[in-house]
Recover the amino acids of this structure.
C-alpha cells in the first residue's frame, strides 16, 4: 500500500493564544491613547509596543519568545536532575512508576501501570489496523460518561520491519472518584475502573472489526521497555537540550508543525533511526477540556555521532528543545498529560 502524502500544514491563527498574549496586546495598544505626546515619546512608546506585540505573537519552533524564556529557565533549574546515574531509564522518566495486577471475576489477569495520581491500561492491536478507526475509538472512549478518562493514546512503534499499534487509557481517581467507588473503592476499585475502561475500548474496536488484547503485567512491562528503546542495564540517563540519552541509546522528540493530519503524522518514519515512535494523545485538563497532542520520537542506538534531527523525519516537525525528557515520557503508551 502506498503511503499517504501529507497535505501542507496550515499556519496557526495569529489571534491571541492565551491570557499572556492578550495582556501583551493590550499593553501594546497603549500608544493609541498617547497621540498627544511629542514625537520622540511616541516613537519610543511605539517601539516598546511593537516589541511586546511581536514577543507575544511570533512563534519560533512552535513557541513564542516569552515561552522560550520559561522553557530555558525550567531546563536550567532541572539540570541537577538531568543525570540519573545507575537508575532504571523508565524510572528516570517516572520515578513513582509502579505495576499492579487486576483480576476479574473469571480469573483473567490484566496489567495496570501507575504514574503520579493515575492508572493506565494498554491494548496491543493485532495486524495493521486503520489509524482512522483507532483514533475514532479513542474519541468514543473519552466521551464515555461511565468512566470519565483523564486521557487516551495511540502509540505506533516502527522498529525495522515490525510495526506495533498500542492503545492506552488513563484513569485519574481524583477526576472521577465515583467510578472507583462503585467498583469497591480503594486501589482495587481504581484498578477495576481502569481495566473496565480498556475493555470498553476493546468492545468499540470489535464493533469496527478490529482485534486486540489487554496486556497482562509481564506483557505490559515488555511493551513499555520496547517503546522506550533503552535497555535496563546501561549508562546514566541524561536529559540534554536537544536529545535524551539512556541505556545505550540517543533519542530526540519532535512535535508536528502547524495543524497536521494525525493519520499522516502517525505514519512518519525515519530511515536513519533504529526505531520511530509516533504518539497521538487526548488528555483532559482540570477544567474538563480535551486537548490533543502529536509527538514523534527517534531512537538511535550504539551512541551515534549526531543526535536525531528534525530533517530525518519524513513529515514537517520541530525539536522539543529543553523538553526532551518530557517528550520521551509523553511517547510512552501511558496516556500521560503534557
Amino acid at each position: 500500500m502506498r503511503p499517504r502524502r501529507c497535505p501542507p500544514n496550515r499556519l496557526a491563527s495569529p489571534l491571541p493564544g492565551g491570557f499572556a498574549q492578550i495582556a501583551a496586546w493590550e499593553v501594546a495598544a497603549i500608544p493609541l491613547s498617547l497621540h498627544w505626546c511629542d514625537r520622540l515619546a511616541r516613537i519610543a512608546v511605539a517601539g516598546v509596543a511593537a516589541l511586546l506585540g511581536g514577543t507575544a505573537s511570533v512563534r519560533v519552533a512552535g513557541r513564542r519568545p516569552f515561552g522560550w524564556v520559561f522553557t530555558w529557565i525550567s531546563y536550567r533549574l532541572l539540570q541537577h536532575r538531568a543525570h540519573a546515574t545507575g537508575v532504571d531509564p523508565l524510572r528516570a522518566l517516572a520515578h513513582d512508576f509502579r505495576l499492579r495486577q487486576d483480576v476479574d471475576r473469571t480469573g483473567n489477569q490484566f496489567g495496570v501501570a501507575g504514574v503520579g495520581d493515575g492508572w493506565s491500561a494498554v491494548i496491543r492491536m493485532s495486524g495493521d489496523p486503520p489509524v482512522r478507526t483507532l483514533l475514532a475509538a479513542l474519541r468514543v472512549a473519552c466521551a464515555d460518561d461511565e468512566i470519565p478518562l483523564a486521557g487516551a493514546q495511540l502509540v505506533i512503534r516502527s522498529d525495522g520491519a515490525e510495526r506495533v499499534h498500542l492503545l492506552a487509557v488513563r484513569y485519574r481517581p481524583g477526576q472521577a472518584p465515583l467510578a472507583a467507588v462503585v467498583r469497591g473503592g480503594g486501589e482495587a476499585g481504581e484498578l477495576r475502573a481502569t481495566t473496565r475502561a480498556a475493555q470498553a475500548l476493546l468492545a468499540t474496536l470489535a464493533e469496527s472489526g478490529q482485534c486486540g488484547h489487554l496486556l497482562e503485567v509481564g506483557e505490559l512491562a515488555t511493551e513499555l521497555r520496547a517503546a522506550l528503546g533503552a535497555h535496563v542495564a546501561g549508562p546514566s540517563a541524561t536529559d540534554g537540550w536537544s536529545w535524551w540519552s539512556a541505556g545505550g541509546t540517543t533519542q530526540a522528540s519532535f512535535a508536528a508543525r502547524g495543524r497536521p493530519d494525525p493519520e499522516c503524522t502517525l505514519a512518519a518514519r525515519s530511515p536513519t533511526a533504529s526505531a520511530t515512535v509516533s504518539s497521538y494523545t487526548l488528555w483532559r485538563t482540570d477544567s474538563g477540556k480535551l486537548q490533543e497532542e502529536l509527538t514523534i520520537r527517534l531512537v538511535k542506538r550504539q551512541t551515534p555521532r549526531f543526535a536525531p534531527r528534525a530533517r530525518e523525519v519524513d513529515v514537517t516537525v520541530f525539536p522539543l528543545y529543553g523538553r526532551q525528557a518530557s517528550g520521551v515520557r509523553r511517547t510512552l503508551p501511558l496516556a500521560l498529560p503534557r
Remarks:
- Residues 10-16 have pLDDT under 50 and may be disordered.
- The chain has ten helices and 13 strands.
- The longest strand covers residues 290-301.
- The CA atoms of residues 70 and 261 lie 29 Å apart.
